[in-house]
Specification:
Chain lengths: ~300, ~450
């Protein structure tokens, strides 16, 4: 990221063909495993197919059904909540933790190791573990509420429609904050000390250092991390599937779960493809938008003239 | 993770729930390629016929041993013929068989729960009819309803029957001087007595959604008889709005309003054993569950079962209802069917396997020894000496005497209706959907049958 990439034209005309040949294996894999299935999903969204026999042409029927489906609208709302709240929760916490463990003190590396633990667990394991902890009759939180006399811990965490979605968002944060913390730790360590020295000489307070030096310098880290959080939570599936399966009612039924159920439980592959296309388009759209508006795509150095 | 098929699967070992759920995610990632996995090679070897058979399992269990022994005895008595058995995890099986059928590459013999999903395969021309074989009369008639379509038999039971009963903690009942109620109003008053003594009256694992469906199945039968659901199955217009269904849903909400279910019933999963723990630990008194709960309880708390504290009772009668209180609901059995893609010699061999092995009394005996209840006629004397003989005997007698054995609705209706039915019913339990709304929503489903 530090060096401005040479444009292909500068390196002479003969390189173009070689570049293409070098790209070919990657492009072939991308084509076979990404592009072809995507086109397949788009095509399938125009058919009715239960997975058996030949698909029947349905034209726009699946799309019209999508437009009128109250469950799909509900799933879109839930998904939007998960995306927005995940970003709002995970980003500040990850920045704070990342900056903290970026320090070189010994005790901080101990903390760093501890924070990273959830990252090592499989998602299914996390889901089952938390399900056991949150059980309203035998769970760990019930035991804790008894021994500490904390009544508010006695909640129907996974069965209360007003609460469950936030519990899920919290668990997703718990699972992924360690990863983003690592990103910010690295981002902070790459900021040259000269910048801080210069700012201090100019009399900057610690708060000013953070707002004027650290945060702008972390800009690309923020873009990377935000893209991962937003696209990741857009398609998030595992914990919801295992812990609530969309319930209670439809309060945690995210779009990816809706798609899964349409395809593999209701055998409506055409309609499920509509949902897949919607998810894909929204995801790619958001990712492209983030890259464009942040100027990340131009890959310009943020330390021009500093070194 | 509770959907229809879980119910059949949960009969077997559940300690592998973690593995199972991980498999699901893996299966999801791999679903695109599952159809291409070439396990279902259907080429006959010279000198004999090679069959493939896909069965569902949730881990090593006595039932697997029974099948393996049956297969090897078949191979011995039919020299040259071989059966290759693949065991597939419960949740991923449904996707796998659907994809294999769709790709025209199914195994010779495949596992099915009967009902709607099997009907869909039959409609697509994927299943070979068995006609009306004479040996089918060896099975209890009520056990073949799920695999009989248009008067033709399409499958044969391979595992035991799984009717649903009320299970209860006898210690709690005798402490309060209660006997298990035989009427719905009696159940309601038992609920209020239990509640006033600080018990959670009923343990319900409705995080899985299907445990709640059992209440609707039974109440509908008791109120309106088996005809109410048959009309639904036939796709009659407005069949869901039958007054019996509305009344059944209203009765369910009456239980919720009375606080009959334990705190957090709407998120508890059966496979974790939590709903059983409530009963054996004496926190809750009653649970409506399939008969597999006896063996699950035995695994979770052996002494509770062996000391006779686990009571078993039929679903109570509803005053003014037209259904016979001896009617049952549940999984009538698990079945195997033959793929229409099988060659003539494969079909002959597969039918021989069904007739000579699955319909034999020695196979029934092996099923009993694995702790299940077979659906073969005259199995009464097979239970003597079994650890759970008294339960097995009671279950078998109930099945034998049941005028109607309604197989689970989530298996009976087409798959595209089962998911909304379960999710909406959970909302009825939570009082966030009215019975009328439920019925109207279900009636507006495009029937895919």
């Amino acid at each position: 990221m530090r060096r401005r990439p040479a444009s292909p034209g500068q390196a002479g005309q003969g390189r173009g063909l070689a570049d293409l040949a070098g790209l070919a294996p990657a492009m072939a894999l991308f084509g076979v495993f990404i592009v072809v299935p995507m086109l397949g999903a788009i095509a399938l969204s125009l058919f009715r197919w239960n997975g058996l026999g030949t698909p029947h042409w349905a034209g726009a029927a699946n799309w019209i059904q999508f437009a009128h489906d109250p469950l799909a609208r509900q799933a879109l709302t839930v998904t939007a909540k998960v995306v927005v709240l995940s970003w709002v929760v995970q980003t500040p916490v990850s920045i704070a933790l990342g900056l903290f463990i970026a320090g070189r003190q010994r005790y901080r590396s101990v903390y760093a190791a501890l924070y990273v633990l959830p990252l090592l667990l499989s998602t299914a394991g996390i889901a089952l573990m938390w399900e056991a902890l949150l059980d309203p009759n035998f769970g760990g939180l019930v035991a804790l509420s008894r021994s500490l006399n904390l009544g508010f811990l006695r909640q129907n965490w996974l069965g209360n429609p007003a609460l469950t979605l936030y519990v899920i968002i919290g668990l997703i944060a718990w699972q992924f904050i360690p990863f983003h913390t690592l990103l910010y730790q690295m981002g902070r360590r790459q900021i040259p000390d000269v910048l801080y020295e210069a700012a201090r000489l100019d009399g900057a307070s610690p708060a000013q250092l953070f707002w004027r030096v650290t945060l702008p310098q972390l800009r690309y880290t923020i873009v990377t991390s935000s893209t991962l959080i937003i696209v990741g939570s857009l398609t998030y599936f595992d914990i919801v599937y295992i812990m609530t399966n969309g319930g209670p009612g439809y309060t945690t039924r995210v779009l990816s779960l809706d798609m899964y159920q349409a395809a593999f439980q209701q055998n409506e592959f055409g309609y499920a493809s509509v949902l897949a296309v919607v998810l894909g388009v929204v995801g790619v759209g958001i990712a492209l938008g983030l890259v464009r508006f942040s100027g990340f795509g131009s890959m310009a150095s943020q330390q021009e003239g500093a070194a | 993770m509770g959907r229809s098929g879980d119910r059949a699967g949960s009969r077997r070992r559940l300690t592998l729930a973690a593995v199972a759920t991980m498999t699901v995610t893996v299966a999801l990632a791999a679903c695109g390629s599952a159809a291409g996995s070439g396990k279902a090679s259907t080429t006959a070897k010279a000198g004999g016929t090679n069959l493939t058979m896909w069965l569902v399992t949730t881990g090593p269990s006595p039932a697997n041993t029974v099948v393996n022994q049956a297969v090897s005895s078949f191979e011995k008595s039919h020299p040259g013929d071989t059966i290759t058995v693949d065991y597939i995890e419960n949740q991923s099986y449904k996707q796998k068989i659907q994809l294999a059928m769709g790709a025209g590459n199914p195994p010779t013999i495949f596992w099915t729960w009967g009902g709607g999903p099997l009907k869909q395969f039959i409609n697509a021309g994927d299943v070979a009819s068995l006609g009306n074989p004479a040996w089918a009369s060896d099975f209890l008639p009520s056990s073949l309803g799920a695999v009989t379509f248009n008067g033709q038999l399409y499958g044969v039971p391979i595992e035991g029957t799984q009717p649903v009963f009320f299970f209860y903690n006898k210690t709690i009942f005798s402490k309060l001087g209660l006997t298990f109620p035989t009427t719905w109003s009696g159940l309601l008053s038992a609920v209020s007595t239990l509640k006033s003594h600080g018990y959670a009256p009923i343990s319900l694992a409705n995080g899985d959604q299907w445990p709640g469906l059992m209440y609707l199945e039974y109440l509908t039968d008791r109120i309106g008889g088996p005809g109410v659901f048959q009309a639904i199955e036939l796709g009659k217009t407005g069949a869901w709005s039958n007054p019996a269904i509305i009344k059944a849903l209203t009765d369910i909400q009456q239980l919720t309003r009375a606080g009959a279910f334990q705190n957090g019933y709407d998120s508890l999963h059966y496979s974790g054993g939590g709903s059983d723990a409530l009963v054996y630990s004496g926190k809750a008194a009653i649970q409506l569950m399939g008969d597999w709960d006896v063996s699950q309880m035995l695994g979770l708390n052996k002494s509770f079962v062996t000391s006779g504290n686990l009571g078993l009772a039929p679903f109570p009668a509803v005053a003014g209802g037209t259904g016979d209180p001896a009617d049952l609901a549940g999984n009538t059995a698990s079945y195997v069917a033959i793929s229409s893609k099988a060659s003539t010699s494969q079909k002959t061999a597969a039918e021989a396997f069904m007739q000579d092995v699955l319909a034999s009394s020695s196979y029934a005996k092996a099923i009993v020894s694995a702790g299940e209840v077979p659906v073969i006629k005259g199995a009464t004397d097979l239970f003597a000496g079994q650890q759970l003989a008294s339960y097995d005997q009671a279950i078998y007698t109930s099945v034998q005497q049941a005028p109607s054995f309604q197989y689970s609705w989530d298996q009976a209706v087409p798959p595209q209706e089962a998911t909304p039915m379960l999710a909406d019913l959970a909302q009825v339990f939570e009082l966030t959907m009215t019975p009328q709304k439920f019925a109207a929503t279900m009636d507006s489903q495009p029937s895919g049958a």
